Amino acid sequence: MTVGVVLWHVHFSWVPGAILFMDSFFMMSSFFITRLLLKDWGRNGRLRLGNFYLRRGKRLFPALVLMVAFVWAVDSSVRPPGEPAHLHIWGALFYFGNWLRAFGVPHNPILGHTWSLSIEEQFYALWPLLFWAGLALTGRRDAQSDSSRLAPEVNTRFWLFALLGVAAVTIVWRAHLALTGAPYWRLYNGTDMRLDSLSIGAALAIGFRSDFVQKLGRILAAPWLVWVMLILMMAAVFTVDVRWMEWYVWQQPLCVLLSAALLMALLQTPHRWGLKFLFQNRVSLYLGSICYGLYLWHYPLIALSEKLFHWQPLTVLLICGPATLILASLSFYLVELPALGGRTGSAR
Q: Which residues pair with 153 in a beta bridge?
C-alpha cells in the first residue's frame, strides 16, 4: 500500500489510481482504532480517553515533529522570496493541512502529504468522544448480571445503522459536489469526503463478531475470490484518475466497498494459494512495521530532490527510495519505539 503511494508521488502516471490505497488505509485505521476502543470498553466498562489520546500522541507526534523540523531546516534555506513561509508547518503539526489543500489556501506544498495525517488525527480526536457518548446513551447492561463492573453491551444494531448511514450520506454528498463542479482538490482532501471509508471501518470493527459478518468473511476469504479482489484493485490502480469526475461519482464508492470486502476476507487470515506468503513474508511485515516512517519521509525527499536537483523520476526513485527506507527505519527504532517505551503493540 505505502509502496504504491510512493510510486504515485514519484511519477503520477505510473500508478494514477494509487489514491484508492488511501481509502483502504483510512478504513483499516478506523477498524483497528475502534477495536482498541471496544477492547478498553469491554475490559474496564468505560473508555479511558486520556489514555487513548496519550498513546496516540506518543505513537504519531514525535516522528512527525522530527520530519517537519528537517523539512523546515532544509527548505527554508532554499525557499524563494514571496513563498508562504510557515503555514504548511502549522498545518502539518496541528493537523489542518488537508483543509489548506481542499480550499486552495496558498502555502508551501512540500508537506502536502500530511493531508492524510490531518484527516486521521481529526478522526482520532472526534470519534472516541462520539463513541463514548453513544455508548453512554445506547449501552445495554445484561439483565441477568448484577455485577456493576460488567461493561454495558454495545448496541451493535444502532451503531451499524448510524455508521453505514454516514457512509451512504458521504457517498451521495461527494457525488453531488462532483456533479455540480467542485474542484478535484476539494473532493480529494476534504475530511467529509473520506467519512465513508472511516465509517465502514468502524462498522466492521463493531460488527466483527456478529454471525453475519463472520459468515460473510468466511465466504469472501475463499483464496480464489481474494485473488480476484486483489486483481480488481490493481487494475483500478492503473486505470482510474483522481482528476476525473467519474472517480468521485461512482468509481471511488466501488473501490471503498471492494476494500471493505477485502478487509473482511483478510481478517479471516487465508493461508492458501500464496496468500500467506504475500501478506506475511518478512519483507511485508517489516515494511508494515515502519509504514508510518515510510509515509512521513518519502514525500519530502521526493519534493526536495525535484526542487533542488531536477532529477528524472527513475533517478528520484532509485535515490529517494533507499533513503526513505533508511530514515523510516531510524525513525522507528530511535524515535517511535522509545516514545512508546519500547513496545511495538501500539502500532498505527
A: 140
Question: CB pairs under 8 A, 24+ apart, for 69-77?
Answer: 70/300, 71/110, 71/111, 71/300, 71/304, 74/304, 75/108, 75/110, 75/304
Q: Give, as one character, the DSSP assignment of residue 80.
A: P
Residues 273, 223 contacting (CB under 8 angstroms): yes
Identify any residues that bridge with 140 across adjacent strands, giving them in sequence order: 153
Q: CA–CA separation, 194 vs 116, rounded Å? A: 10
Q: pLDDT tens for residues 151-168?
A: 678 889 999 999 999 999
Beta-carbon contacts of 322 under 8 Å, excluding residues fewer than 6 positions away, are none
d(CA 151, CA 42): 6
User: From CA 187, how far away is CA 272, in angstroms rounded?
Assistant: 39
Cα angle 309-311-315, degrees, rounded to a multiple of 5: 130
Q: Which DSSP category does 150 fall into?
A: S
Which tens digit of pLDDT belongs to each residue from 113-140? 999 999 999 999 999 999 999 988 886 5
DSSP-assigned letters across all residues of 224-290: HHHHHHHHHHHHHHTT--TTSHHIIIIIHHHHHHHHHHHHHHHTT---STTHHHHHHSHHHHHHHHT
Residues 326 and 290: their CA atoms lie apart, in Å, by 10
End-to-end CA gap in the chain: 14
